[in-house]
């Protein structure tokens, strides 16, 4: 399980290969990150870092965010087959996060190690 980590590493492909190496055959890998979309830039960087100050300014670099398609490809090359993907939605009234069909900002993927790497 690697939640909100991959957008901070220098080599995402090598990071995913390491996750795969640590996963037993047919074992699950769960990874979450931020989509490289304009909506994500507005919410995860502008709003969360500069307006709401939930995170220190400069925590994220938009260029390090991955699209869902990019993450799937990187994981496949590391021998992990993505089986499920969902978004996260924040409710400011309740202060709670929930799973969503919207993967335009934060998303999570679950995959199984296939023993095949490229």
Automatic annotation (TrEMBL):
One BP term from GO: methylation
Any single Pfam family the record assigns to this protein: Methyltransf_23
InterPro entries linked to this entry: SAM-dependent_MTases_sf, UbiG_MeTrfase
Molecular function per GO: 3-demethylubiquinol 3-O-methyltransferase activity; polyprenyldihydroxybenzoate methyltransferase activity
Keywords for the protein's UniProt record, in alphabetical order: Methyltransferase, Transferase
Protein name: Hexaprenyldihydroxybenzoate methyltransferase mitochondrial-like
The organism of origin for this protein: Trifolium pratense (Red clover)
């Amino acid at each position: 399980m690697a939640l909100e980590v991959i957008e901070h590493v220098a080599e995402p492909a090598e990071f995913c290969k390491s996750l795969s190496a640590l996963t037993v055959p047919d074992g699950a890998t769960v990874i979450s990150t931020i989509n490289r979309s304009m909506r994500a830039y507005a919410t995860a960087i502008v709003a969360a870092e500069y307006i709401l100050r939930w995170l220190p300014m400069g925590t994220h670099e938009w260029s390090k965010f991955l699209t869902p398609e990019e993450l799937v490809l990187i994981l496949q090359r590391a021998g992990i087959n993505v089986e499920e993907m969902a978004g996260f939605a924040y409710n400011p009234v309740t202060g709670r996060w929930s799973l969503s069909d919207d993967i335009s900002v934060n998303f999570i993927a679950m995959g199984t190690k296939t023993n095949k790497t490229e």
